[in-house]
C-alpha cells in the first residue's frame, strides 16, 4: 500500500494559508468600518449633517452596518438624501 505523505513544505503552506484566511476574515468588519469613516464627508454632503453622521455611525459598527446595507440593497436608503434648492435630490 502506498500512503500519501505530504512534504513538510506542503504542510506549512497549507497551515499558513488557513491562518491567513482566518486573520483576513476577522479583519474584514474593521476594514468596512475604516471605509465608512473615510467616507463620512461624502455622506454628510449627500445626506446633510445629521443623517450623514447617523448613516456613517451605523455603517461603522461591524455586522450592524453590514445588515443595514443588505436591507438598503433591497429597500433603498433608510436615511434620505437632502434636496437642493429645486426640490431635487442631490447625488
What is the strand and helix layout of this fold?
Elements: H1 8-38, H2 40-47, H3 49-60, H4 64-75
Helix pairs in contact: 1-3, 2-3, 3-4
What attributes characterize this protein structure?
rod-shaped, mainly alpha, 0% strand, 91 residues, single chain, 4 helices
Radius of gyration: 22 Å
| Poorly predicted segments | none
Strand residue content:
under 5%
User: Structural class given helices, strands, pairing?
Assistant: mainly alpha
Question: The biggest beta sheet, please?
Answer: none
The counted number of beta strands is: 0
Intertermini distance: 68 Å
| 3D shape | rod-shaped
Number of helices: 4
Overall pLDDT level = 80
**Which H/E pattern describes the elements?**
HHHH
What is the percent of helical residues?
A: 55-70%
Can you walk me through this structure?
With 91 residues, the protein is mainly alpha-helical. The protein has a domain at 35-91. Helix content is 69%, strand content 0%. It is built from 4 helices and no strands. The protein has helices at 8-38, 40-47, 49-60, 64-75. Helix 1 (8-38) packs antiparallel against helix 3 and helix 3 (49-60) crosses helix 4 (64-75). The radius of gyration is 22 Å and the shape is rod-shaped. The termini are far apart.
Short description:
The chain is mainly α and 91 residues long. Helix content is 69%, strand content 0%.
Amino acid at each position: 500500500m502506498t500512503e500519501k505523505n505530504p512534504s513538510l513544505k506542503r504542510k506549512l503552506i497549507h497551515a499558513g494559508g488557513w491562518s491567513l484566511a482566518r486573520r483576513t476574515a476577522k479583519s474584514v468588519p474593521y476594514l468596512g468600518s475604516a471605509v465608512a469613516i473615510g467616507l463620512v464627508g461624502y455622506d454628510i454632503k449627500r445626506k446633510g449633517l445629521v443623517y450623514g453622521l447617523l448613516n456613517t455611525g451605523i455603517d461603522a459598527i461591524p455586522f450592524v452596518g453590514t445588515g443595514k446595507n443588505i436591507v438598503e440593497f433591497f429597500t433603498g436608503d433608510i436615511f434620505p438624501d437632502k434636496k437642493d434648492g429645486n426640490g431635487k435630490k442631490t447625488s
